Amino acid sequence: MTPALLAITCLIAVTFCYAGTCAVSPFGNCRKCRGFGHGLKTDRRGRLRRGKDCRRCHATGKRIRAGRWLYNRAARLHREGTAE
Predict the structure, then answer these.
(1) In terms of DSSP H, where are the helices of the chain?
(2) What percent of the chain stands above pLDDT 70?
(3) What is the pTM assigned to this prediction?
């Protein structure tokens, strides 16, 4: 197998795996708060305390995946374009 064909095969496999992940689990952990829903900070003694609520995920800890966001946008555009 040539290197170009191998690279194309790997890219197609990664794309299908990501599409499957987006279909099965459309929400992933928030990258800013790492799924906690809030920040962590320490007090003067070094103990962890709960920080402010995450502004990106609105304290849920979950964000919609980029692939699922694109799919939703394309589906909405198609639905609005073919409606009577």
Answers:
(1) 3-24, 66-82
(2) 99
(3) 0.69
